[in-house]
Amino acid sequence: xxxxxxxxxxxxxxxxxxxxxxxxxxxxxxxxxxxxxxxxxxxxxxxxxxxxxxxxxxxxxxxxxxxxxxxxxxxxxxxxxxxxxxxxxxxxxxxxxxxxxxxxxxxxxxxxxxxxxxxxxxxxxxxxxxxxxxxxxxxxxxxxxxxxxxxxxxxxxxxxxxxxxxxxxxx
Length: 171
Ligand SMILES: [Fe+2]
Ligand SMILES: [Fe+2]
Description:
Blueprint: H1 9-21, H2 24-28, H3 40-57, H4 64-73, H5 91-106, H6 111-119, H7 132-158, H8 160-168
Helix pairs in contact: 1-4, 3-4, 3-7, 4-6, 4-7, 5-6, 6-7
């Protein structure tokens, strides 16, 4: 199928990364919580879509395929960080490295994709992104995470009266 037939970002993801989206590792992310009740899978798709939209808005000349593939795999750490385990005690600092190791084992990665995954936690991890694509994913990841947490706050606000009534019933 011709690439130009794909105009929608979701379809662009399918065009460049059907193998990743359908892989066992990515699919397992549908059952793994990431932020609040958002799964790792939907967070990863969200980051890929935001990165792509940012690149287009800023009219950046980028490697779209690498951007999408790196974005989808940036949190490919394949465990639930909410479950305490010595192996991922320092999840925030170590998961980018774990994601790169897992993604390299399951897919053929180029240097841009590797950089995206390895550096997406900048500035928490101090290695500086080397490519425009890595910077975009780094920013998109923060936008996505902030949106997820804001949604959770929205839920609390919406249910504030119910929660208050419930707590007061215990007095
Ligand atoms: Fe991450
Ligand atoms: Fe992320």
